[in-house]
Design goal:
With 93 residues, the protein is an alpha+beta fold. It has two domains: 11-52, no CATH class; 56-85, no CATH class. 20% of the residues lie in helices and 25% in strands. It has helices at 22-30, 66-75; strands at residues 36-40, 46-50, 56-62, 80-85. The N and C termini lie far apart (52 Å).
């Protein structure tokens, strides 16, 4: 059976498929914190994953209100929220 090995991994974005299949990563990003799910890698190995926390959330070109962001921040106190409204022009350096 399994090797009873527990790993803590950090996914950098919904496109981070270094360890898991991209569809599995997209699934994980759609689930709430403290959820469990089965996911796979490119070799079809199956893993049980628990989504432990969310460290940052990027809401660029979003329709969410400032009040909505403040409510979200209260629900996710350990998460840093980056926000830019849909009406904010893009800035390039």
């Amino acid at each position: 059976m399994g090797s009873n090995k527990i790993e803590n991994l950090l996914l950098n974005s919904v496109k981070d498929n270094k360890k898991f299949d991209i569809k599995a990563v997209e699934l994980m990003y759609s689930l709430p914190v403290n959820s469990f799910t089965l996911i796979n890698d490119e070799m079809s190995n199956i893993y049980l994953a628990k989504l432990k926390n969310l460290k940052s959330l990027y809401l660029y070109r979003s329709k969410i209100s400032i009040d909505g962001i403040q409510k979200l921040q209260k629900q996710l106190p350990l998460c840093k929220i980056f926000y830019r409204s849909e009406n904010t022009p893009e800035q390039f350096d």
